[in-house]
Amino acid sequence: MCDINAARQHPLPSAKPHTQSSLVNADVNQTLARCVPVILSGFIGNGRTLGQGQDFLRTWIIYTYIYTHIDLFNRNKTEEDFLLHQSLFPQGTHYLRPCLSGCQVWCCCSVEDNHLRIYRQGIDRLVTMPHLSISPSCSSIWLICILLTIHAHAKDALTVPQVRLSADWDTQQLTISWQGGAATTFDLMILRTELNETVFYETVNVPLNQESGQHQWTWTSVEPLECTSLSIKIRSRDGQTTSEWSNTQILQGNDLPSKEKFQFYPQDRIVPVGTNTTFCCIVEEGKVFGSILLGHTVINTRRLSRRSYAATIVNQGPSSRTGTNVICYDDPKTKLTGAVVFVGYPPLPTDFVCETQDLTSAVCQWNEGRDSHLYGKRQTYYSVNKSPQQKRREISFNQWDGNWTLVAVNHLGQYTLTDFAELGHRVHPVAPANLTSVNRAWNATVAWQWKFDSYSSLALDCQVELTSNGQKTKRTFSGVGLRSVVLSDLHPDEDYSVQVRCGAQENFWKWGNWSKPFSFKTSTTVPDAPDVWVWMNRDNTGQVLWKLLTHRQNHGQITAYEVTFWSPGETLQHTDVFSPDTSVAPINLTKIAAFKSGKVIATVIAKNNAGASQPANIPLRLTDVEPLTASRAVYVDGGFPLFWQSDVNATCGYVVEWHDASCMSDCPVEWIKVAAGNTNVSVESANFQPGVRYTFSLYSCSMEPPELLQRWQGYMQELIPSSLALLPTRQQGSNILLTWGEIPLVNRRGFILGFNVYMSNGSQFTLLANLSDRGARNYTVKGLPEGSYKFTVKAYTVAGEGTGAPASITLEPYTDWLILEILTSLGITALFLVIVTFICYKKRKWVKKAFYPDIPEPKLPGDWSRTQGPLDVKPSSHSVVHIVERPELDSSKEMLVVIPEEDEDEEGQGIGDEPVDTDEPASLRYYNQVVDERPIRPRFPDSSASSASSLDSARTDVTYTGIQTSGSSLVWLDSQGSSEDQQPQAELSVNCGGGGGGYRPQMQPRAPSEDMGLASPEPFLEPQAAIAGGYKPQSSWHFDSPVEAGESAGRAPSLGSPTSVASTEFLLPGGEEHAEEKQQLSSSAATWFTNLLSSTKP
Asked: What superkingdom does the record give (predicted)?
């Protein structure tokens, strides 16, 4: 019977569609050829004609379709559904069962959905027919059954395989072996048992193993075989004919319920770089799967069974020494399991070569080549000519074999190298041993021994590597059985180290190994002669200098330097001893002066334990040498190239000396000596510094003192100059004069090419001038308006400008010319006054006559010719004038008030502001004039009164204008008694003594009054006639204009000071308001002029 349920539990994937023509093959045609006569007779017997034989055509098409697709199903592991629609059987499907009842292979299991599904017994597979364009009849179905029965009996002829399984868990390989008769083609099916998923289904060609009589085929699984159980079935195939499937064989996995633990596969797997590796995690029974991680990265997983999950790592890179961890977690992460994978390379050794050292045995060596990244027990092992495997990369053989094979093996594979050569072509000498030496000052003999006696007949080339002071040199020697060499051109008292290696002269293969280093030291000898030079200052002082001997020159430890001063032809010598680190000996003028000859030679000798060096002589230059004009030296390629003309006097060559140009005395000097015949040299020194000017001097070398031939100056590298010193600026009208000093040589730091003058405006600089004159020291900025200015002067070299020196100035209005004009005017005025004074002095008589004539002496009556006696300076008795107050006077009238002498101002400057009122009669006092017979001389007038003394007479007529005394002052009072600062309106005339002859000053008498009152308002009258004869000077004047007369109305004119014959006043009146000022001016001028005239009389 057909088991429909079993068929439905094992569906197969759909096959690809095929064309109808491809369904017909040779077997079908043969079957149809045998069945067609029977089928035709059946149709004809039923009364059907061939032309009406539609059933035959329908039967042939259906059979061909079923047979072909079933065959394809058997071969291609596919299941086809063939659907017969209701339209194929319009009468229904009830008649199909009797038609198919004779078929032993096919049966109909379901017709309830009006579709015909035909199942083949034995394989439990469902075949559902598709829609056809023809409708079969019952006879057609019978024909199909007959044909299928014939096909089924043909298949029964193939043997059903008997299968056995064998698994290699490490390599994940499954070996399947079976007995299948004579068939060589088999259909192989592998499924995951639990989920019934097809893993492998192919038709394979497996020949029969004649020895075992079995067929065997190996399958490699992608997943580890432990991950899940696998089901395997095989059937034989002969073309389109197949046998029945074998019994299902199951390879049990570790995901069975009986194995409950948390598991992970594979463990400690070793894989090559770049491959893909699949891991599986079997979750503990009852737990939930979580994730699989590579390091810290989660990997995508797929399910293999109920508990098993797989993840694939693709394109793996080399792992570390400890491998790469792959971990599996459950969910949640309460438990974990995992494995370590080692990823590396197969072995790839290189440089495999075999050689001999003793001319008998062989030593083979090779390099590991590419790193396999496998270590420990997984590392690579080597074998040469099937020798035991070893880790070392060197192996020895007692006898020489011309052919060698190296095999390198690790878990990922193996690699093979070969080598072949003759014995004489692979000689590699061993290292020399037991080195010894015999040492001398300038050479040494080095000897060694060989390990093998066979070297005594071997022609060798040996290299000796000599090391001294960090420098290595190699020397090559040749000989048969070479055992010693002589090393020449060594230096005394020098430490050396040597190594020796050798190689075969014939068929040279390679140098042997170096011997161990061997050290020795050469013997000492006398030092070399020092290199000596002399530095002379302008005062004939100086220094003898020498270069300290180097280690290569001293030939032993220097103990001292001796400097000796001597002169040819003289026995006198001066020797000084200096310490080994001294290189300067001062020249003592006292010692030099002791030599009679003008030629003095300094000799320097170096000493060590082996003796004294050859003497080094240098003649001293005791005469001053004029410095030569220095040329420019340019630093090129690490030195200063210097060129000069050849000098015939330079018998022993030339000396080039250089030093810092800013040094003038006892300078640190460097020098080099140039052989005779050379006219150029490049001066190089490690002491050259940028920005420092150096002076180079060329001297000729001979038996005479060095002669200066040429001089240069130059810089190793010119820098920008340092700031110059800017002197105070000066204003010159609207111009500004900028001055600066010379830059010291040490601050120039290059050859000065000129100066740039800038005016700064904030942060901007405006170039005013570029002075290309190197000697320029000032610059005038012209035509500037008033204001503040800032200037900067920068010197420049080829390296650029220096920092410059700033200066600020405020341009103010120029006052020097104004002051000069004032001083000039004062000088001219002073000069003019001096000239005028000089002229006046020379013409003093004319000046006196023109501007100050003599006043004629008055002619006095009487006898005035008495001999002069001593001047009586006692004051004369004075007369008192009493002013009697009259009651009948009108108080409203002005009157004369006498101020007592005690109340007068001490300074005599005027009248106080306070009014003076007294009831006491006032006294007016005056003095009689004393007449002297001596010649009259000018004298200063008295503003208060004039007095004179006479030895003959006490009678003098004096005229006063405005009576006042030395003890009182007069003021005019109004009726209230207050002062109104008004001048008296009347004049007072006093006559002392009777009228008579003699000097009578002219007066202006007023009209006679009865009581001689002073309050009369009437004006004074002009005098009509003189009272007595004699000189009467005029003491009155008239106003020049009516205006002045009007202004003076009501005031009496001032009578002035008393006037006499001896008066020095000009007879010119002045207003009382100007009396004080005129008095001071006239007094000062008169004093100077009077003194001038009086002191310059002839």
From this structure: Eukaryota
Taking the complete model, does pTM exceed 0.70, yes or no?
Answer: no
Residue 755, helix vs strand vs coil: strand
Question: How many other CB atoms are found less than 10 A from the CB of residue 417?
Answer: 19
Q: What is the pLDDT of residues 495-505, one digit of tens each?
A: 999 999 999 99
Q: Name every residue whose Cβ is closer than 8 Å to that of residue 308 and which is 6 or more positions away in sequence.
A: 227, 228, 253, 255, 280, 281, 282, 283
Beta strands in 180-268 (DSSP E): 185-192, 197-205, 215-220, 230-238, 241-242, 249-251, 263-265
* Distance, CA of 245 to CA of 233 (rounded, Å): 6
- The DSSP result for 405-419, as a single string, is EEEEEETTEEEEEEE
Full DSSP string of 430-480: PPPEEEEEEE-SS-EEEEEE-S-GGGGGSEEEEEEEEEETTEEEEEEEEEE
Computed over its alpha carbons, how large is the radius of gyration of the chain? 78
Residues 6+ apart with CB under 8 A from 538: 624
pLDDT in tens, 172-206: 999 999 987 788 899 999 999 999 999 999 999 99
Residue of 421, 354, 364 lying closest to 390 (CA atoms): 364
Contacts of range 27-30, beta carbons closer than 8 Å, 24 or more positions apart: 27/239, 27/240, 27/241, 28/64, 28/67, 28/68
How far lies 775's CA from each of 583, 739, 754, 866, in Å?
40, 12, 8, 93
Nearest to 128 by CA among 139, 120, 138, 137: 120
- Name the CA dihedral angle for 1080, 1083, 1089, 1091, rounded to a multiple of 10 degrees: -130
Phi–psi pair at 1048, nearest 5 degrees: -95, 10
The contacts of residue 130 (CB under 8 Å, 6+ apart) are 65, 81, 82, 83, 84
Angstrom distance (rounded) from CA 754 to CA 758:
13
Helix, strand, coil share (%) of the chain residues, nearest 5: 15, 35, 50
State how far the Cα of 162 lies from the Cα of 216, in Å rounded to an integer.
12
User: Bridge-partner residues for 732, per DSSP?
Assistant: 735
Is the pLDDT higher at 187 or at 978?
187
Q: How far is CA 996 from CA 830, 859, 861, 950, 1098, in A?
A: 56, 15, 10, 17, 41
Written as six digits, the tokens of 335 are 């438990």
Strand pairing class (241-242; 197-205):
unpaired
Amino acid occupying residue 344: G
Please name the residue that has the structure tokens 């497996």. 206
Instruction: Name the residue with tokens 């000066």.
Output: 730
Question: What is d(CA 563, CA 549) in angstroms, rounded to the nearest whole number?
Answer: 15
CB 85 within 8 Å of CB 117? no
Of the candidates 159, 166, 164, 201, the residue with the CA atom closest to the CA atom of residue 184: 159
pLDDT at 881 over 90: no
Sequence-distant contacts of 398-402: CB under 8 A, at least 24 apart: 398/360, 398/361, 399/360, 399/361, 399/362, 400/356, 400/360, 400/361, 400/362, 401/354, 401/362
H or E segment and range at residue 151: helix 138-155
Three-point CA angle 1037, 1043, 1044, nearest 5°: 35
Beta strands in 266-420 (DSSP E): 269-272, 277-282, 289-294, 297-299, 301-303, 308-313, 324-330, 336-344, 350-355, 362-367, 381-384, 394-397, 403-410, 413-420
In whole angstroms, what is the distance from residue 1036 CA to residue 911 CA? 25
pLDDT at 964 over 50: no
pLDDT tens column, 41-87: 443 344 343 334 444 455 555 555 554 444 443 433 333 333 333 33
Q: Are 43 and 15 in contact (CB under 8 A)?
A: no
Cβ count within 10 A of residue 785: 7
Instruction: List helix spans (H) across 631-707.
Output: none
Q: What does each C-alpha distance from 866 to 876, 934, 956, 1079 come to in angstroms? A: 20, 9, 18, 35
Where helices occur in 242-294 by DSSP H, the ranges are: none
